[in-house]
Specification:
With 233 residues, the chain is of the alpha/beta class. The protein folds into two domains: 201 residues, Rossmann fold; 28 residues. Helix content is 57%, strand content 11%. It contains twelve helices and five strands. The protein has a five-stranded parallel β-sheet, sandwiched between helices. Belongs to the CoaE family.
């Protein structure tokens, strides 16, 4: 059995959730990085304890959960705090992603889609992906969707879009582009044909990766991530 990873990304209001919905409908394995990022900081987790130790109990809600808005404000204004938070959460997120990838490998899936909003910005993970898919839409459509969807003013919408890497920039790096500027049906057809192509491609010998994992155990995650590029080149 061979298996490979597909990175999926987009921009604000580019329509990534539409694409994910179609992929799930097709029975694809989709791992959502945002969901995992929320799960690894739940109360009683290792990351939760470290965050409280570093940022103080005042960033907790009454429920004991982390106040994401408060934490967001801190890390937005202080880059060194953002790096600290990343150092706490990233290893936990990667460990959980790896566990889920393994689960799908064992279940015999041909490929796994990793839905990572900042895939092209962080760029660290792209080398583990066989393909990278960008959900694109033209800037005018993106703005009008954002205004409609979130009830923003034109200026607010422009500021949100400007805070991200332009989709036209990301386009150059993606191996596949799904153009979501048209209607839902056109996007759906593009996802179906992409899925058919991915199902047909038999590239990676992931059995070697599984063997490597069995040898090092999940504890050897750092070691594994060093080896990973060799396994999948």
């Amino acid at each position: 059995s061979t298996m490979f990873l597909v990175g999926l990304s987009g921009g604000i209001a580019s329509g990534k959730s539409t694409v994910v919905a179609v992929l799930r409908e097709l029975g694809c394995a989709v791992i959502d990085a945002d969901v995992i990022a929320r799960e690894v900081v739940q109360p009683h987790s290792k990351a939760h304890r470290q965050i409280v130790r570093c940022f103080g109990p005042e960033i907790l809600l009454e429920t004991g959960e982390i106040n994401r808005a408060a934490l967001g404000t801190i890390i937005f204004s202080q880059p060194e705090k953002r790096q600290l938070l990343n150092r706490i959460t990233h290893p936990e997120i990667q460990k959980e992603m790896l566990k889920q990838i393994l689960k799908y490998f064992v279940l015999g899936y041909r490929y796994v889609v990793l839905d990572i909003p900042l895939l092209f910005e962080t760029n660290r993970l792209t080398r583990f992906m066989k393909y990278t898919v960008l959900v694109y839409c033209d800037p005018r459509t993106q703005l009008s969707r954002l205004v409609r969807r979130d009830g923003l003013s034109q200026e607010e919408a422009e500021a949100r879009v400007a805070s991200q890497l332009p989709l036209d920039e990301k386009r150059k790096w993606a191996t596949h582009v799904l153009d979501n500027s048209g209607g839902r049906e056109s996007t759906r057809q593009q996802v179906l044909s992409l899925h058919a192509r991915l199902e047909d491609s038999l590239h990676f010998l992931w059995a070697r990766l599984a063997l490597g994992l069995a040898l090092v155990g999940l504890g050897g995650l750092g070691y594994l991530l060093l080896l990973l590029p060799r396994f999948i080149s």
